[in-house]
Amino acid sequence: MLNASIGAPALCVVAGLAALLFAMVLTKRVTSVAPGDEKMVEIMDSIHEGAMAFLGRQYKTLLIFIAALAIVIVGAGMLTGGTAEGLNPLTAVPFLVGACCSILAGNIGMRIATKANARTANAASQSGLNKALSVAFSGGAVMGMSVVGLGLVGLGVIVMIFPGQADIVNGFGLGASSVALFGRVGGGIYTKAADVGADLVGKVEAGIPEDDPRNPAVIADNVGDNVGDVAGMGSDLFESYVGSVIAAIALGASMAIGANGEGVMVPMLLAAWGIAASIIGTFFVRTGEGKNPQKALDAGTYVATVLSIIGTFAICKFVLPESFSDGVNTYTNMGVFIASVAGLIAGTLIGKITEYYTSTEYKPVKDIAASCETGTATNIISGIATGMISTGLPIVVISIGIFAAYYFAGLYGIAIAAVGMLSTTGIVVAVDAYGPISDNAGGIAEMAGLDHSVREITDNLDAVGNTTAAIGKGFAIGSAALTALALFSAYTQAAGVASIDIMNPMVVIGLFLGGMLPFLFSAMTMQAVGRSASHMITEVRRQFREIPGLMEGKAKPDYARCVDISTTAALREMVAPAVMAVVAPLFVGLVLGAEALGGLLAGSLVTGFLLAVMMSNAGGAWDNAKKYIENGHHGGKGSDAHAAAVNGDTVGDPFKDTSGPSINVLIKLMTIIALVFVPLFL
Amino acid sequence: MLNASIGAPALCVVAGLAALLFAMVLTKRVTSVAPGDEKMVEIMDSIHEGAMAFLGRQYKTLLIFIAALAIVIVGAGMLTGGTAEGLNPLTAVPFLVGACCSILAGNIGMRIATKANARTANAASQSGLNKALSVAFSGGAVMGMSVVGLGLVGLGVIVMIFPGQADIVNGFGLGASSVALFGRVGGGIYTKAADVGADLVGKVEAGIPEDDPRNPAVIADNVGDNVGDVAGMGSDLFESYVGSVIAAIALGASMAIGANGEGVMVPMLLAAWGIAASIIGTFFVRTGEGKNPQKALDAGTYVATVLSIIGTFAICKFVLPESFSDGVNTYTNMGVFIASVAGLIAGTLIGKITEYYTSTEYKPVKDIAASCETGTATNIISGIATGMISTGLPIVVISIGIFAAYYFAGLYGIAIAAVGMLSTTGIVVAVDAYGPISDNAGGIAEMAGLDHSVREITDNLDAVGNTTAAIGKGFAIGSAALTALALFSAYTQAAGVASIDIMNPMVVIGLFLGGMLPFLFSAMTMQAVGRSASHMITEVRRQFREIPGLMEGKAKPDYARCVDISTTAALREMVAPAVMAVVAPLFVGLVLGAEALGGLLAGSLVTGFLLAVMMSNAGGAWDNAKKYIENGHHGGKGSDAHAAAVNGDTVGDPFKDTSGPSINVLIKLMTIIALVFVPLFL
Description:
The structure is a homodimer. The first copy, chain A, has a two-stranded antiparallel sheet. By secondary structure, chain A is mostly helical. Helix content of chain A is 82%, strand content 1%. Chain A starts with 6 loop residues before the first helix and ends in a 6-residue tail after the last helix. Chain A contains 19 helices and two strands. The model of chain A has no long low-confidence stretch (mean pLDDT 93). Chain A has helices at 7-31, 38-80, 92-126, 129-161, 166-206, 218-254, 262-282, 293-319, 333-358, 363-371, 376-389, 392-422, 425-447, 452-495, 505-546, 559-573, 575-592, 594-630, 640-676; strands at residues 323-325, 330-332. In chain A, β1 (323-325) and β2 form a beta hairpin. Chain A has one domain.
């Protein structure tokens, strides 16, 4: 029987297991392909080991963090516990389960992604474009299916263990958030420290090409692609995915929608159906020789989206009561459907807008490239201005989405919009994780000295990967904002405050402090990249100087040492921003109270969203302006304009790959901390 | 007899007239000094004429803007009028008076500032440091006294004409805001278009030094210093000054503090006494040969501050009732005193924090200079990160200030804190306007070929001017934020909404849209500078090419043409951002309602304050990092580090002198528009 405490979560578990089963099938599909010659295998193994080494070291730090937070939960629970309003110490259980699920998803995804790279290159060499696309996409889809599979299995089990106890279930989201913090911040610092180190010494000082095996940091750089765009992105969307469902469950429960908990069931059913839609979508990702692989990836996403909409309609129509009330207004089941579709459309539009501002096809990037003709300064100003302007449309889109969701289904509608936007997370992550695999495949083809025609195929795949990465970033930001807003709504319901009134100066203080945090957080992560990169630069220079025969290709560099430096630096540098993200909401909640904390969350949501969009888009636009010039415009490679473009790209690196994406996690983490610890603030 | 409708405003008029009388004395003091030889007079006249030409052209555009807005006020008043809740068409009267007062203050200030420059240089040459300081400071003090004098005369007269009609008096603030919009945005674009044009072609391409008379844009550049830092800064602080008093009057009236309108009287009395304190303070600005002029300026400010505090204590103690209530809490007269002092201290602290982040004396600028060693990209990242981090302390300071003011005196306290912060506006503007006069004096000394020892004195004065400019910028931002918050409080009272609740998604949409506007506005003004500068560059290149004998110093460049280009470009480019600033709040208020508009104002206040601080401080820090390197660090002038620093400085120019300061006006203008037009949104 379909109900909120057994039936619906059981369906989640079943759908999740199906996703995991499909991930196993995909894994087989990837590993059954030969990884190529000895040299390719050697490089692949280096990347794989480097990635696993990073994860292993990260787990140790994570363990301390998770343990500390679990102790805080249990301790706070014992202090306030016993009463119905207290924090339940059992919240630590879903917290730990959520963290473990996210860690496991990341581990599986990374494990396969770092085995798919050489196989993609080899498939390109042996069988051509379609097979290479299939391997790369299958590798990425393992990550996608692990994220949604483990997300729903874990969440479903937790809901069954704690039926009707939304306050405890929230712990699952906090666990996911904690892992995402490490994935995004630590991963973001890692990837850019390695990238900048490899580029600055290798390309600029030593004058050797990208992905040259003589460069000591080349493996760290390739590891970094996976650490950032597979594990980091995956943990971020894992968090949004489960966070949106949790928020909808919490609101469905507190608003008592439906006589039998239908409001609680619906988000779970939507998520479960979304997995089916995503799996079916993957079968449409296929291309032919000489065709644009972008179309194949788009086809998969569109199929999943349309299927998701159809299923959503059915679920809303047949599960929800025809009308329900939040005490003030009355809404219909079709209103909920509209809210969900509003979220899906908003997510798609934000992705498209991101593409407009960051693709070489459109005016903004062309204008930035043109501004390089008058030097670096004009390029920087032009990029920052473009990043700022690019906040306009996403804000309008998300505002319309919020308006539609709220108008047709109240606060519950906002959470459902987030669930709708994230229902196709499985295939979105798959398309996203495909990017670094293709990128790595190109690197391996270069390092292993494969035929030029192979490199052409991998370059083709990689170029598409840059576009999907940009769209994925937009989607990640949009979904983070909507999830944070849904969690914020759940927080306000849980806090039971009459209002969070901007006319109350305590709320204004919260707004000011919250608005400032993303600025501080961005600055901290940016400076962390700078410091980490300088360690890397020193080490790469040392190896070039001290290892005899390295430049002549007679000796091998010490790749592992560079991997180690990135790892150590990333984990050390993320401590300060991570602590700030956890302590700030607790401090404000405890000292200034639940209303000021509400202001803080709203403030950080607004400026966080704006800064994340601005930084990601400015960074993406600079990157592609450089590529545009390299393609022969404004004097091409080696021109003064190109030198200016390289500077812009370097500034944009921490913008788009560290600080911008880290903000996604910041705004969600602070909100879920507020939601979990709300009993302490009342 | 001291009362709210005659006595107190009459005192304002008297104090204002005293300030204007003192401005006349100062004018005499300046004009009685000989302006030097024929060449110096010629240059001075060119700058003077250029500045007056800009103002003249600006007035024509302003006239259209003001007339249009007046028609809107009268039209909206006729449509909604008649009822007590409607917009009173008479609001157009104070609107026009406010605009005229601000225009007049700017005109007087500019007129004298552009006559004090050559006289400062000549005084340095004839009598040494102390006399030069006295002339430059007196020139700046004319602007300071005009701002507070005309501000209080105008406001006092309006209050006497419309006693007890706070809604009509608000129009005065809107007039001031409209002029500030032109002063800051137009002035900001003008000054940087001229500066970038003069530097890029003159210094970089033609290889001639700064302030070389052969550079066709040199006069425009010197005019720009006055347009930006005298007229622009003056109109900005004029707006804050009258805005804070208006907000306090409105809140004092709506909260009915004191049986005889004592709550309305106090802000007027504080402002009136602040003029006396400022005048007395100016007498302490004197230095000796070989001493640091900074100390002299500080002494004047500190004396004015201490006097202001003493007077505030007396006014609160003897005018206000011992205790009063806002209906919920009871406050004391000493609470109001504390609120006022909290504002004064917050303003001083924000200035000091700005100095810390932008002065060559401290770590942030030194770190940025060090980052230039690894190139432009690291310099840019370092500067942006510093700008972002520098938002932290000002936010904390202003939050504590808001907390203290609210805790001790409620919403009224917040408005009084703004009045307190701005009570010493007279001397603050004087110190600020002293900067461009000294800067111009140095330019004239260079162009007229005065002795090296003269240039040393003017360089000394100019270096101090850079510090005071940075502090002044911090003060302007802080006071803009506090004034906007006070006006926002007045708006919420006037709107009579029960709450502006962030739990209401319409308010969240307002927050998102409002938060986005400063980003869009900054991008627009930044791009405007880029376009205007490129016109200037084209013209300067043309003159170098087409005027025979120019480089050899045998022919004179066409200065007027460059002045004209800056003027035309600035006035054309400011249309779009200006329209957006006016239309956005009207649109949201009319379409989404008074609560969403409240969200919009709060959102723009928060991100506007953060962006303004970030951009001003990043720009100031880059500027001084360049100076630090030019003083011989990291390889000095001509090194690679210096080239990187020049790029950072160029990026920082529109940050600190156009976009950052323009945001001050944006947040105040949108709030006062909401306040004036609130009857339309209900």
